[in-house]
Design goal:
- The protein is α/β, with parallel strands linked by helices and 453 residues long.
- The chain has helices at 15-26, 41-46, 48-67, 81-106, 151-154, 158-161, 178-189, 210-222, 273-276, 312-327, 356-363, 377-382, 411-423, 428-433, and strands spanning 6-11, 31-35, 109-112, 115-117, 122-125, 128-137, 141-143, 170-174, 193-197, 226-228, 233-239, 242-247, 253-255, 257-260, 264-266, 299-301, 341-343, 349-353, 367-374, 388-395, 401-407.
- The chain folds into three domains: 6-141 and 265-327, FAD/NAD(P)-binding domain, CATH 3.50.50; 151-262, 3-Layer(bba) Sandwich (FAD/NAD(P)-binding domain); 341-446, 2-Layer Sandwich (Enolase-like, domain 1).
- A hairpin with a 4-residue loop joins strand 4 and strand 5 (122-125).
- It is globular, with a radius of gyration of 24 Å.
Length: 453
């Protein structure tokens, strides 16, 4: 007889937690999970899924504009914002039901409420303590609002933007990470006047290639987004039904909403980590080793709460691999090399592998750069000046493709396939020998023959 109530207790029913719980249960162990907010975590409820639905509704606005160039007569059109939000909510509720059913069908014991560690082998949910041989913390991340006067009181975050009762006619976005740029593009396409405020001189951060950052900012500027680099918000105050956003350049902006897309931090509040003795790292993230194990041998952590790679597919992979090792007799670890990612900005950007700066730091002059810029075929009749950027980084001595970057329509869809090739060790010669699918934008990656530098 086991001295514990369950073999595994998972705190957090987000992407990583649900995957870990389901797979562990499939290995025949007794599993419990706790959640206090919603099934599916940030991604399903206030992240990837509703954000992609919002990019779709914005896509339709662009497509209707483009259709005129192809001869379509598009009459008066209006987005019924409340209808869209209602249908978005229906879809999120449907997905929550699916997650709950998956856990129940797997035989996972569900505890609804706030969970905290109660020692190295215990979890408290409400007034009940459940003991477990092992515990996985998968509580994800939470939004961060900077310490600016009026920001917390009058601003909104990415958690709130999905539930706005009205579309803002003027939107101020603080931050130029992927969240800020995505919402800037969405609301601009829907007709809002958008101002993006950021203290750096470039959009995105050093994890993105320099050419990509410059090119994307240029394309978004052409679409009418107002970028304010090297600028800080100093105060947000209420002005009737609107908000006056004070900037350190002395030029305030009157807006309907102020979105603080200023990053996320590990969601460790109330977990009782310090009392139990679980060590944390930068920003309060749970420190783990290569086995996803904390300094307490019975406690593990996966996903955004560890602040390594804040991507839903990474959390899924970590949770799956961990329980396969613990219960499935599979010595399996995920690789953090060549993790593809995408920003669903307008236009999209996506990448896999090294940036040019990272490649030069690692390989010095032993790299070749191939780039291509062009106006995609669909843009011609539409009358759009939007251009596409594609970039390959190749290690000269091995001919391996070590970096692939794109800014343009459907970049995420295109780069996903090339990521598989890079994982498999594709060389530039492999790219050159591949027959392109014509006419597509994707074929440009296999027809770049002339080195840029």
């Amino acid at each position: 007889m086991s001295p514990y109530d369950v073999d595994l207790f998972v705190i957090g029913a987000g992407s990583g937690g649900v995957r870990a719980a389901r797979i562990a249960a499939s290995h025949g162990v007794k599993v419990a999970i706790a959640e206090k907010t919603f099934y599916g975590g940030t991604c399903v409820n206030v992240g990837c899924v509703p954000k992609k639905l919002m990019t779709f509704v914005a896509d339709y606005a662009s497509m209707m504009e483009d259709a005129a160039g192809y001869g379509w007569e598009i009459g008066e059109r209006k987005l019924e914002w409340k209808t869209f939000i209602s249908r978005k909510n229906d879809e999120i509720n449907r997905l929550n039901g699916i997650y709950e059913k998956m856990l129940a069908n797997a035989g996972v014991e569900i505890h609804w409420g706030t969970a905290q560690l109660a020692g190295s082998h215990g979890v408290r949910v409400g007034d009940k303590i459940i003991t477990a041989e092992r515990i996985i913390v998968a509580t994800g991340g939470k939004v961060f609002i900077p310490n600016i006067e009026g920001a917390a009181e009058h601003g909104i975050t990415s958690d709130d933007v999905f539930y706005l009762e009205e579309q803002p006619q003027t939107l101020v976005v603080a931050g130029v990470g992927y969240i800020g740029l995505e919402f800037a593009g969405i609301f601009k396409r829907l007709g809002s006047d958008v101002h993006v405020i950021y203290r750096r001189d470039k959009i995105l951060n050093e994890a993105f290639d320099e050419d990509v950052r410059d090119f994307l900012e240029g394309e978004m500027t052409k679409k009418g987004i107002n970028f304010h680099p090297k600028t800080n918000i100093t105060k947000v105050e209420k002005k009737g039904k609107q908000f006056l956003v004070h900037l350190d350049n002395g030029e305030p902006i009157l807006a309907d909403q102020v979105l603080f897309a200023t990053g996320r931090t590990p969601n460790t509040d109330g977990l009782n980590l310090e009392k139990v003795g679980v060590k944390t790292a930068r920003g309060g993230a749970i420190a783990v080793n290569e086995e996803e194990q904390t300094n307490i041998p019975s406690i593990y952590a996966v996903g955004d709460v560890t602040d390594r790679f804040a991507l839903t597919p990474v959390a899924l992979a970590e949770g799956h691999a961990l329980v396969d090792r613990l219960y499935g007799n599979k010595e399996r670890h995920i690789s953090y090399d060549n993790i593809p990612s995408a920003v669903f900005s307008d236009p999209n950007t996506s990448q896999v592998g090294l940036t040019e700066a990272q490649a030069r730091e690692k390989f010095g002059d032993d790299i070749d750069i191939y780039t291509s810029q062009f106006r995609a075929m669909r843009m011609i009749l539409a009358g759009r000046e939007e251009r596409t950027l594609m970039k390959l980084i190749v290690q000269r001595s091995t001919d391996l493709v070590i970096g692939l970057h794109m800014v343009g329509s459907e970049a995420g869809e295109i780069v996903q396939g090339f990521a598989t090739a890079m994982i498999a060790g594709a060389t530039k010669d492999d790219f050159d020998r591949t027959i392109g699918i014509h006419p597509t934008s994707a074929e440009e990656f296999v027809t770049m023959r002339t080195k840029t530098r």
